[in-house]
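## tool: complex_structure
## caller: assistant
## args:
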Amino acid sequence: MKKLINAPDRVVTEALEGMAAAHPDLLTVHLDPAYIMRADAPVKGKAALVSGGGSGHEPMHGGYVGRGMLDAACPGAVFTSPTPDQILAATRAVTGEQGALHIVKNYTGDVMNFDMAADLAREEGLRLEAVIIDDDVAVKDSLYTAGRRGVGGTILAEKICGGAAEAGADLGSLARLCRDVNASVRSMGVALTSCTVPHVGKPSFELGEDEMEFGIGIHGEPGRKRVGMESADRIADMLMQPILEDLPFRRGDPVLLFVNGLGGTPLIELYIVYRAAHRIAQAHGLTVARSLVGSYITSLEMAGTSITLLRLTDEMTRYWDAPCVTPALRWGA
Amino acid sequence: MKKLINAPDRVVTEALEGMAAAHPDLLTVHLDPAYIMRADAPVKGKAALVSGGGSGHEPMHGGYVGRGMLDAACPGAVFTSPTPDQILAATRAVTGEQGALHIVKNYTGDVMNFDMAADLAREEGLRLEAVIIDDDVAVKDSLYTAGRRGVGGTILAEKICGGAAEAGADLGSLARLCRDVNASVRSMGVALTSCTVPHVGKPSFELGEDEMEFGIGIHGEPGRKRVGMESADRIADMLMQPILEDLPFRRGDPVLLFVNGLGGTPLIELYIVYRAAHRIAQAHGLTVARSLVGSYITSLEMAGTSITLLRLTDEMTRYWDAPCVTPALRWGA
Amino acid sequence: MLCVWLRRAAQVIDDRQDSLSVLDAVIGDGDHGANMARGFRAVAGKLDEPPPDVAALLKLVGMTLISTVGGASGPLYGTFFLDMGKAARDVSALDVPAWRTLLAAGVAGVAARGKAVAGDKTMLDALIPAVAALSGTQSGPDTPQALARAAEAARQGAEATIPMIARKGRASYLGERSAGHEDPGAASSALLLTALADTAG
Amino acid sequence: MLCVWLRRAAQVIDDRQDSLSVLDAVIGDGDHGANMARGFRAVAGKLDEPPPDVAALLKLVGMTLISTVGGASGPLYGTFFLDMGKAARDVSALDVPAWRTLLAAGVAGVAARGKAVAGDKTMLDALIPAVAALSGTQSGPDTPQALARAAEAARQGAEATIPMIARKGRASYLGERSAGHEDPGAASSALLLTALADTAG
Ligand SMILES: Nc1ncnc2c1ncn2[C@@H]1O[C@H](COP(=O)(O)OP(=O)(O)O)[C@@H](O)[C@H]1O
Ligand SMILES: Nc1ncnc2c1ncn2[C@@H]1O[C@H](COP(=O)(O)OP(=O)(O)O)[C@@H](O)[C@H]1O
Ligand SMILES: [Mg+2]
Ligand SMILES: [Mg+2]
Ligand SMILES: [Mg+2]
Ligand SMILES: [Mg+2]
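## result:
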């Protein structure tokens, strides 16, 4: 394991200290329990957005804290859901009279920990809603699984709801909008290499030189199947087809196309994937109205990509375009 | 070699097509000869900024084209300087009466190709200045080398000069400011893994599990020495000491601290390095006034980091803070 | 005795941290060992001045696990101890019926929180057989013997998860690929019960 | 004859592309083979309807290399052919003195553009001995023989770069670590001259 770290059990804390030092204008970082909040939180008269999850997916979620996006984020240990006391402390710190929305990715651990935190927060008299994001079409949603995972769609939900919250949307509307986004977004990913969890010290799985793990999650969990290596165009097609069929996306739909890097894949390759995905979307009759290309939800140093497609409403487009000022996503201000 | 590509000789063109599709609002992409320019170029009454270099360093330089930064960028083949006709065509496309500044990284190939292009452009009657960036302290600057390489400082020069050009600075002042930035900036990098040039198909060098390549460039050129693997804190120190001594940076200097990822290193590790570098800067008596953390000048999928330190003047800080709207760097607008 | 058990559990979990994480890497995300070790280290740190009664101690353990483990196992093991703590208000001596009451309450809490049932390839597949082994005990044998039988049932239950297809938690994403591997949570549950039996024995 | 040479050069460069890139990977950035192959492929593509005279053809080759090779070798080899083309205005038949004039002009152009001298571990270390070999030719031997001698001098010159410490180009960043490896540009220069000799022979 070759990593720019000091010790596996100091990774999260030291990265948080680094974020605090790098973005004093944007963020306030609390270490025990660990959470990151807007430097100007709580923002009077605004409903708060709180998210969180395991670390190792940077810039998600801490990099999305700031004006026009999240009010607070709770980082767990690497690939481990945060604990209820963390989530409670973060929620308490940023929530005013307008209440708070928890945006939770659909993993058993995340759901249970956010649930427990929400119960505690409500006992303290805070108004709270929670929305679960489950956009990963690689996982069969059935009675026999924990349901679909939350992946790339999470960031789109956070940005769009963040724009709405900044514009004064009340808690009920925010929860409704967040559910709308979740209902309209689909994702799928592929890994070319594994990642190594610092305290494990060896790769989570081994992939041959000619193999890729298809339908991968963001925790180094194995995907649904291992297949032979393919060209970028073919990979884009293998990711796009299940996404297109699932919603389904239809001719004429305006969409946001998001090509994401999993951490170890360079930007030049993401643009090659974007090119292919954009052509497939156009051939399907979609109007690609907005795009995002980069490593925004990662799995440590894993090489690979995921594609996320969101069917936009005018409301979503408006809040996507709204200003945001966070370490990782910033425009309009 | 596992890459998200279709064929080695289509990498650059297809990535450019991807950029064109992803950023139609910001960029116009020309394919033969290849260059990327601001969608609104030429901008009347403004001196133009043109840069370029080999591909494989994304988002540099194409990702920095846009309002408040570059007017055009010329991407060569992977790790190969662009050709004079490319540079000439790009310069011609964006240059008006205020002339243009070529920002050139100090590599024999870049310097010669930009030189030839500048000669041709001047023959066509264009006003042209060129500034060479050579901030890499890993290379001894002596009669016996091609001189120091241009690395991370390039991006700071492009942002700061871009801000000044947008504010109406004339060509002479821009060239002077660019030289000032270059005179005040120092960088150094380390690689934990090699990268693989697509048409070569195997890693540029081999590194053992316990080794790192110290003083690495951004083309997979070997560094000055191979040393044992170290902790993030120690690596930050090994990079910072030569940087601090070289300028030298002095107690009380206000600085911009830029921790860069080389392509395969995840953001969480960069923040750990940033934390260490920030502490070292503070211990040295510097005031870290501005920061940048992320993968902004890369070497394909190479794992590793580089640190760049710039001693700020008020003028530089003002133009660093000025709005910019590019695919990779965006704020204030 | 509770403190001795918890210290021994912390020790065993720490020793077996890597093998638990390896189990989790195969069908999950490779953090179960680290999660449990972090949690039980925190628990051990609270045992120097333990609360006076069993109920309070179990509650403290539950709260500590909840606020340090994270992931799926944090709330589940946390609930396990919290609910044992609630049930402990009704027991006096830690004899076989008392352990049956406590563990049954803990297991019911886990099942309620995780909405899993036997056969879903989770920690419940080790915990349920353990409680059953205690319940099956006819005339009061001595406590060490009964707990040893419970631990053995837990170990067998954990082993029996190998062929199962996961229907809950992260392993369920794998579908049929989850078969052929022991569930890490079942493995850690077996370790906890073995530590308990060793403490009593 | 020029066209035959250039086609053969394109073929040889293409065949040896990988080994040139490997040389460059060790002390440079691994692209020299691809750069040269791209350039000479473009040159070959221009030979179906070549310009009528030697000077114009050499100029076209130079311009083509400049606009397709990139890197350090693009302007250098481009200048090499451009300056040969300028000198070609003064020669009529392609005999030994003519080749001496052309190659000397090309080499002078490379030296001027790259500001390198013999011993800097560059393509000049193959080119300069080749020109010297032609100049050393006393009474006019036949052209094939003389060009063969020049090619042999270039090959030896390339080999002689192995122990050198680079003082120009990318390899100079390595300092003493650049010793022990052949310079890729010297190797490609030797290939070009060998192709020329083979064409004449
Ligand atoms: N719904 C559930 N009910 C009971 N146990 C569960 C459930 N989901 C997961 N588990 C248990 O949790 C274990 C995984 O714990 P851990 O790796 O610490 O958390 P995570 O899966 O969040 O990484 C599984 O092996 C399984 O035994
Ligand atoms: N200043 C120079 N003068 C002469 N030849 C040079 C000079 N700099 C580099 N070269 C030659 O160019 C070769 C490298 O070419 P190439 O790899 O195509 O370009 P780059 O170094 O830009 O990647 C070197 O091996 C050397 O022979
Ligand atoms: Mg986990
Ligand atoms: Mg090169
Ligand atoms: Mg786990
Ligand atoms: Mg080269």
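## assistant note: The two ends of chain D are 11 Å apart (CA to CA). The helical segments of chain D are 2-27, 32-45, 54-68, 73-88, 96-114, 124-136, 143-159, 184-200. Handing back to user.
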